[in-house]
Design brief:
Largest sheet: 7 strands, mixed
CATH superfamily of the largest domain: P-loop containing nucleotide triphosphate hydrolases
Helix content: 40-55%
Strand content: 5-15%
Oligomer: single chain
Distance between the termini: 48 Å
Structural class: alpha/beta
CATH class of the largest domain: Alpha Beta
Order of helices and strands: HHHEHEHHEEHHEHHEHEHHHHHEHHEEHH
Number of helices: 20
Strand order of the largest sheet: 3-4-2-5-6-1-7
Length: about 450
């Protein structure tokens, strides 16, 4: 009689020496700086390069591909900044905005205002009134013990619930919140009475539409008074701004420091696997058991240096090992488990997307310098296809790579089985099949 899956999992975890599921997560532990610090790997030089600029009030732009670790980097930077500042008996107010999905400049100001109001609510009557009056914005305020355990760091994680919510509120009209920019500047000035340093982190600045230079330029133009403020520093992250956007930002004097996060090296990804497994081991080890060195090398190669992909693949391969009953993932066992992961991904891919993956695999990916796959797909222009490609990157079906002169989208290894299984679509209708699906709007939701 076959054992229940939960019992098989428990037996394997006992064999592996694990107390619980290894936390191979897509996103970093935002409210647990000690765990964040334990998992943080590499990037030491990049961290050192942002510390002094932020402490002197300069703005920093952190660039990198989807999943390369920008969120992890800025959270670690905020916690290390708080620790450094405390060593000289100064105070830091960190504000972390992780869900700004674009919209008007007023919405951007309102999120900043709400975070500042919440931070000052116990110290300032106006701030408390603003925090109580504003509606339509969700904010989570967490106090986290610092890296060294001697003091607490307050992180404000802000996100909109959509649109210009709350602008019609009667209480907001009574305290004049129709001009949020004024109150942002006013509360920043008041915050400096209590804090020596104010650092505002905005994650994925270009989430609005990274391919429309006019939108990004408009945001830069409109937000100049805040971005150039001498009362705070900004650390902004974005996936890949264009060269024109970078130049424009530099001309305006917005960014005094730019950091580009490159993919991690295979040995750094291996270190992440070891650290993550050790979080739940009964006794720490120096290897990634039950993953063999061959398996870790294959996982690192399949992730193309992207931590998010690596974590996902580790979790999925270990799930497959439990399902198939492997105690150790040597080279052969890994290939079997990875094939199971690919089969599961393939089963979830829609026919139109499968066709796009097939064409991408056939021609070595999509890029502005390779017209063949775009023509076979039936689309007229690479720029027109970008929102769809970025959507598939977020679904972990494609991987976005930068090279000299442009960007390339290739099929993710976990999606390669889906790319090999071309659905029965007549060649003459290839373009229609894709354009008739919901792919055209997928990247603009």
């Amino acid at each position: 009689m076959r054992l229940p899956l939960t019992l098989r999992k428990k037996q394997l975890f006992d064999t592996w020496g694990l107390r619980d599921n290894p936390p191979f997560h897509d996103v970093p532990p935002k409210d647990d700086p000690k765990r964040l610090a334990r998992l943080f790997t590499g990037r030491r030089q990049e961290l050192d390069r942002v510390m002094l600029p932020l402490l002197r009030g300069a703005n920093v732009l952190v660039r990198g591909a989807w999943g390369v670790g920008k969120t992890t980097f800025i959270l670690q930077a905020l916690h290390e900044l708080a620790y450094e500042v405390a060593q000289v008996r100064e105070r830091l107010l960190p504000i972390y905005i992780d869900n700004f999905k674009g919209g008007t400049l007023a919405e951007f100001h309102r999120m900043l205002l709400f975070a500042l109001a919440m931070a000052l609510a116990e110290k300032d009557a106006d701030a408390k009134a603003i925090a109580e009056a504003m509606k339509g914005i969700h904010i989570s305020h967490s106090r986290t013990r610092s890296l060294k355990g001697k003091f607490e760091v307050s992180l404000f994680s802000v996100g909109t619930l959509g649109g210009e919510a709350g602008l019609e509120s009667g209480r907001e009209r009574q305290i004049g919140l129709d001009n949020p920019e004024y109150w942002v500047q006013e509360l920043l000035a008041r915050a400096r009475r209590y804090y020596h340093h104010i650092v505002i982190a905005v994650d994925d600045l270009d989430k609005t539409d990274p391919h429309e230079f006019i939108k990004v330029r408009s945001l830069f133009d409109s937000a100049l008074p805040i971005l150039r403020s001498d009362k705070c520093a900004f650390i902004l992250t974005g996936r890949t701004l264009t060269v024109a956007q970078d130049i424009y930002g530099n001309i305006l004097g917005i960014f005094q420091q730019q950091i580009s996060l490159e993919p991690l090296k295979p040995e750094e990804l291996r270190a992440i696997a070891v650290k993550t497994l050790n979080l739940v081991r009964r006794q720490e080890r120096a290897d990634a058991y039950p993953l063999s060195e061959e398996a870790v090398a294959r996982l690192a190669a399949s992730a193309y240096g992207i931590p998010r992909h690596f974590n996902q693949l580790c979790a999925k391969v270990l799930d497959a090992a439990v399902l198939l009953g492997y105690e150790v993932l040597d080279a052969d066992a890994f290939e079997t488990c990875f094939g199971e992961v690919q089969a599961n991904v393939s089963a979830q891919v829609e026919p139109q997307i499968r066709q796009l993956l097939y064409i991408a695999q056939k021609h070595g990916g999509f890029s502005q310098h390779n017209r063949k796959p775009i023509e076979e797909l039936g689309w007229g222009d690479f720029i027109e296809l970008l929102p769809v490609l970025d959507h598939l990157v977020q679904r972990d079906l494609l991987i976005k790579q930068e090279y000299i002169g442009g960007i390339r989208y290739i099929v993710a290894p976990q999606a390669q089985k889906a790319a090999l299984l071309l659905p029965p679509v007549a060649p003459s209708s290839a373009g229609t099949a894709v354009e008739g699906s919901d792919m055209e709007t997928a990247g603009t939701e």
